[in-house]
Amino acid sequence: MVAEKTEYYLKELPKGVKLVAVSKTKPEELIMEAYNIGHKVFGENKIQDLVRKYENMPKDIEWHFIGHLQTNKIKYIAPFVSLIHAVDSFKLLKAINKEAKKVNRKINCLFQMHIAQEDTKFGLNKTELFEILDSKEYTELQNINICGLMGMATYTDDKEQIANEFRFLSDLKKELKDKYFSDNPDFKELSMGMSGDYKIAIEQGSTMVRIGSDIFGARNY
Questions:
Q1: Which of 15, 78, 126, 219 is deepest in the core (most CB within 10 A)?
Q2: What letter would DSSP give residue 152?
Q3: What is the rounded CA–CA span in Å between residue 146 and residue 130?
Q4: pLDDT score of 218 more than 90
């Protein structure tokens, strides 16, 4: 089933939209079913799971960390992580930079924006983001590469609300590109959309969708 579902999404997604198969809580053999048909981008949200899978699995896999990241855990993934989706504070960004420097890497990151009408979701607001980007301290971070934004829409059946939240993120990305990242070709990603709302996200400019349960089945905890 995993192979068929992965194949379905790879065919279904428009050109320019990357599938991040969210493999969190799933065993390595299921991930290998997707890998064996040629898919190599997977998302994890627990550090120890990610490290174990990285060590045991093929080294050409592109691992994305999509969960809430604690500063004291960055060191475990700094040597190999391809993209950190959820940078939701300046403290975290500085800690990523510090660990990246130790392993002589530049780590790709996305700023997580709080776009939902729910307090349970993490993320920066626009004011906080501009404060970071305008600070002298930010310009001194040499070991991070900001590639775009990530956000999670409100969990609701109201498609118009979801579209509006994604549109806000898309507009913000354009604004940031003009103001801060015009000379960074890597600043182009919008990680938004999951199993339930990815079609709306793509309509609003998503370049990266995070699909988990629809590929791998319900989560195991």
A1: 78
A2: -
A3: 14
A4: no
Q: What predicted TM-score, i.e. pTM, was given to this entire model?
A: 0.95
Pairs from 12-17 (Cβ < 8 Å, separation ≥ 24): 13/202, 13/209, 14/202, 16/207, 17/202, 17/206, 17/207, 17/208, 17/209
Q: Sign (positive/negative) of CA torsion 9, 14, 16, 17?
A: negative
Q: What is the pLDDT of residue 220?
A: 59
Q: Are 208 and 16 in contact (CB under 8 A)?
A: no
Beta carbons within 8 Å of 142's beta carbon, 6+ residues apart? 97, 101, 106
175 CB contacts (<8 Å, ≥6 apart)? none
Determine the 3-state secondary structure of 14 from DSSP: coil
Domain range list for the chain? 2-216
Q: Which two tokens stand for residue 67?
A: 């969960």
Host H or E run for residue 99: helix 90-102
The CATH code that applies to domain 2-216 is: 3.20.20.10
pLDDT of 219 > 70? The answer is: no
The answer for residues whose C-beta is within 8 angstroms of residue 100's C-beta and 6 or more apart is: 78, 106, 107, 143, 144
| φ/ψ of residue 19, rounded to 5 | -90, 120
Residue 139 tokens read as 């310009």
φ/ψ of 148, rounded to 5, equals 150, -155
